[in-house]
Design a protein that fits this description.
The protein has 205 residues and is an alpha+beta fold. Helix content is 31%, strand content 30%. The two termini are 33 Å apart.
């Protein structure tokens, strides 16, 4: 668990689920191929808490740590595409297995020092193209419609949105209710599933 040496006064924070490196890198290559300028800046992820003001860093950190301690590792399957158009110019990969766990985590996290009323309902997803030309959004939605990947999630990242508009990782918080043996079993099951599905995802682009 790595903590930052200092944080900004009146900062904003976010909480995300990261992906295994091979899957994250593949999805970033796809995102770049659709002309999304954020492909090289934002790693592939599932957002649990979007940009939220946090006036008390210590209370925020303690809150997120407590939620992490009470959360067991779980499996995530991402598959197929969807879009928030016409409300927002976004194409995403759906979260299938793990959807309810993400919603539950979001509801637990968005309380206490991170409580706020959101202008939209929380919908776990993986952004693959955002704010690009309509034809690029169409391409992303079509090309990745058969994409599928499955992997275990064993931690979540607490990020600060700094003054330069960049997300900085403050802590990666391990989920804490599963035993080491149970966690290893989940990872082994994921590896077996990936092998059975020729790598667990589409080919790299």
């Amino acid at each position: 668990m790595a903590a930052a040496s200092s944080v900004s006064e009146g900062m904003s924070v976010g909480v995300i689920l990261g992906f295994p490196p091979a899957i994250a890198e593949e999805l970033q290559r796809w995102r770049a191929s659709f002309g999304d300028p954020m492909a090289g800046v934002i790693p592939a992820h599932i957002t649990l808490v979007t940009t939220t003001p946090a006036q008390d860093w210590e209370a925020t950190r303690a809150h997120v740590r407590e939620v992490a301690r009470d959360q067991a590792p779980f499996m995530v399957t991402i598959a197929g595409t969807g879009t928030f158009r016409p409300v927002s110019p976004v194409v995403f990969i759906n979260v299938e297995d793990g959807f309810d766990a993400c919603v539950d985590l979001h509801e637990k996290l968005q309380t206490g020092p991170l409580h706020r009323d959101l202008p939209f309902s929380y919908h776990p997803h993986v952004t693959i193209a955002h704010d690009v030309a309509p034809e690029s959004l169409d391409e992303a939605e079509t090309v990745l419609k058969d994409y599928r990947a499955r992997f275990p999630v064993v931690s979540m990242g607490l990020y600060e949105h700094d003054a330069d508009g960049i997300w900085q990782l403050r802590e990666e918080l391990d989920f804490g209710t599963e035993s080491d043996n149970d966690t290893c079993s989940i990872a082994a099951d994921a590896a077996a599933d990936a092998a059975a599905n020729t790598g667990g995802s589409t080919s790299s682009h």
